[in-house]
Every structure is written in structure tokens, then in C-alpha cells.
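User: Could you check the structure of this?
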Amino acid sequence: MLRLFVLGILGILALAWPEAATAQQRPLRVVATVSMIADAVRAVGGDRVDVTSLLGEGVDPHTYRPTRADIAKLSSADFIVANGLHLEAQLEQTLKTLAASKPVLFAAEKISPERLLAHEEYNDRKDPHVWMDPKLWSVVVEAVRDELIVRDPAGKATFEAGAKTYLAEMQRIDDYARRVLATVPAGSRVLVTAHDAFGYFGRAYGFEVKGIQGLSTESEAGLKRIEELVSMLVAKKIRAVFVESSVPERNVRALVEGARARGHQVIVGGELYSDALGAPGSYEGTLVGMLDHNVTIISRALGGQTPLRGLNGKLKSGS
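Assistant: Sure, the predicted C-alpha cells are below.
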């Protein structure tokens, strides 16, 4: 009788507060600002999370301004995860306001400041492009795992297993990068791109990195900067420069034309992913795929030796 009585009471409570009764059954609604963060949350959270990424393929987070639809998505989330470090510059105030009423994690800000590169224009800021170094990104993954456990303690085993698998993937791509990038001739280890998104990549793998624009795509590329880089390309006989999927390529084309005018042939070595992943559902639409693509393209274009289809054999032939 007592058991029937308790079951009856629980049934009444479920009818009275259906949301409370189903809160443990439905996945956590997580909104991630950028696709790299969304990838980590999905990998760690598994089927215990329902993840929405605000910024998709080819979208520049430095200049993106939130829409009304974005505000609605953020407001309805159980949990919000951002990169932070001023990457989402135009979203920052909105996220800080929402943090007063719901959990917001600025995941990259969990990395110790001494491990971060300084911003060349602002003394109080750091380079936000931490996903370019898998070892740094591992700190972000661990921060996501720990916060998910706080939000959903019953999912602890799932989150720990997901993080362990994902961290192992980060280690594999890091090992691959070190191996294939080491085949690039020492004098050719100069990476010239549209903006300064590859600083952590350069530090991790021993490349000199030159961006036409600064850390943020909001900074302007002046004629003086273009001329400086053209002179460097000619002097060091650099064979390739790279465009980026989320940044217009006109400045990179200006480098190619400037070098040609001085009698030095420079090619566009390919399109790199910098501030956004590739197409959703594609291999390059995952962080491992993005890094595999970038490492393989850079090594091959600068004279290194790489497998035709990258680490996992999933890159498009000739990528």
C-alpha cells in the first residue's frame, strides 16, 4: 500500500510540474558561440547534450554581431559555452549580461595566463586562437568536461569517457603535426596568412607566422604591411602563402601580385581554416579534421612530405 501511495504522489507531482519530471530525462540544451567549442561540447557530452553553435562555417567571430534569433537561443539555453579571451568581441557584453541568470563558461580563459600569447595591440589581452595548439585545447576540453559534470552529475561517467576519447584524438593530431611539419625544410618554415590566427600553431611546431592583419580581423592591413611581407617573401624565397575560409582573400592576392612584380613566384598554397570549422557533417567540420587539413596543406605547400589524404585518410584527395 505504501508503495502505491508513493507512486501516486509522484504521479501527481509529475502532472503538476511536468518540466521538473522530465528535466533529468532530456539532454542539456547547450549553446556554443563558435564551432570549435561546439565540437568539444558534442564530443564530451555525447547524447546527454543538445548543442547549438551560433556561428557556422566561414563566419568571422571577431566581427559577428548577435541577431534577435541568437539572443533567443542564448536565453533558452541551460548552459552557454564561449571561447572568451575577447574572440567573440561583439557578443561579449551579451554573454556577461546572461551570466547573471544562467551558467556561462568562457572556456579558453581557464588556461593559465603564462601559457597564452600576448596580444600585439592590447597589453591586457591575450591571443584567443588557442585551438591551433591541441595541447592548449586540451585545457578547454577539461574545462568543458568539469562544467558539464556540475550541470549534470548523473552524466559524469559519460562526460569523463567522452573527454578521454577526445583528448586522445588531440594527442594523435599533435603527434601527426609534429611528424609531417618536421619534413618542411628549415628555411621554408614561414607561414603567411590573412590574419594572425596561427600564433599558437607557430609556437607549437617551430614556424615563423606572419599575418597580414592582426589578431582580430577588424584591424586594417596597410600598404606598408603588404610591402614588408612582399619583401620578406622575396628575400626568403618563400614559395606559398595561404588564404583563410573566414577572411576575404584580397590581401593575400596582393602579396602574390607584389612578389610577382619583383620576379618571385609565390603560389596560394590553399585555404586554411582559422576562426571556424568546415561544413557541418564533413570531416573538416570537426576540430580534428580542421587541424588535419591545415597541417597537411601547410606541410605540402611549403615542401614537406604528407600522406595524400592526411592523418585519418579522410581529407579530400589533393586537399
